[in-house]
Amino acid sequence: MSAPRPRAAGAATGPVAELLVPASLATALVDEARRALPRESCGVLLGRGPDENGRLRLTRTLNLPNTAPMSVSGRFTAAPEPLRSLLESSRSELVGYYHSHVTGAPTPSGDDLKGGWPGLVAVLVGPTIARAPRLEAFLIEPAGAKMLWRRLRLRTLAEGR
What we know:
This protein is α/β, with parallel strands linked by helices. It has a single domain (about 20-155), classed as Cytidine Deaminase, domain 2 (3-Layer(aba) Sandwich). It is built from three helices and seven strands. It has a seven-stranded mixed β-barrel with strand order 1-3-2-4-5-6-7.
């Protein structure tokens, strides 16, 4: 990902085991991924946590323009200006980012594994062209010169919970 590495107020500092996602936000992530076709969608995840039980709770998403050249299939580059503005003005905590995989499963690709923002959650949506794309969540942790993408439990919450 080619966006600037943010100083994340919500970067996980304790053990994170689960990501709680309101149903409306889960639906919005899938809808945005479909709208972005044939490109990948991308954006940031705002929320709270982790709580004493290791749960992060999403409260909002912000879609960012994918500025990767159209000729580069299966890639995304988040535009840095909206991200900088968000970080300067938001009262919510940045807990992670998301992007879609047009034809691939919602698991880290080779390119994904080469990067990522340590301490943040990555939510992957895919395959976007499928009838029912899935969401998967990962906590990105430094592991020497590489990044380890540790799978998190993702729980979709009914509205009002």
